[in-house]
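ok trying this again, last paste got cut off
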Amino acid sequence: MDLGLKNKRAVVCGGSKGLGFSSAEALAAEGAKLFLLSRDEESLKDAAAKLLAAGSPEVNWANCDLTQHESRQACIDKIKAEWSGIDILIHNVGGPKPSFVVDTTEQQWQDGFDRLFIPVVHLNSAFVPGMKENKWGRIITITSLSVVEPISFLSISNALRSASTSLSKTLSDEVGKFGVTVNCVAPGMVRTDRTEDLLSSRIEKSGQSREDYMKEMLKTIPASRLGEPKEFGAVVCFLCSEQASYVTGSTLCVDGGKRRSTY
């Protein structure tokens, strides 16, 4: 199936590793042009080479600390200098450290806000006007299963990824008539470095062996396994496609059936 993404210009935040890279890889296979943002220069170089090999006709990249206004603005300026505009914007940043609500300091809440919410606002403001003018655009925010079912020990992520989800829903109402869709994709336990860090923290906290903890944890996932990054990337890529033009304002969970809610 041709997803209509050949030569579409996609900015992928956190695009050198994990869920960002898997999303970029799926877009590359459809012939999209890519601009990767990440803090790790070596990982960016490696990712760019892999994505060119995967089929992307063009891969640009820039060092970017998405938590810092000046760094974001420098990347926005670089993207606009390279391209007249963009077609696809994928928001993606790593989650904050786990904590309980009562143990989370005011500074940690502020840092979480600067990490998970403000970058979405800033990049949307920079690129949505061009999408509206072109009458075509796709905005995807990678969030977490925590936005539909809060996860214990992830207080900052639960609160601020939910705020980003509400922001996306509000924006979808405003730009739908311009051919711009805005959606969120919420991963469950997908095999990434972030997932491994969370598992290690929870296993240590539980006092169980890794084998025993994983056996019990997998019972809560109907698919009985962790998800693979390529499975996640394929969902993001579909939401960017022409075929998904009537899907907007939604959160799609990629979780192997783990969530227990029906919506």
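PB: full thing came through this time. The beta strands are 9-13, 33-38, 59-63, 88-91, 137-142, 180-187, 251-254.
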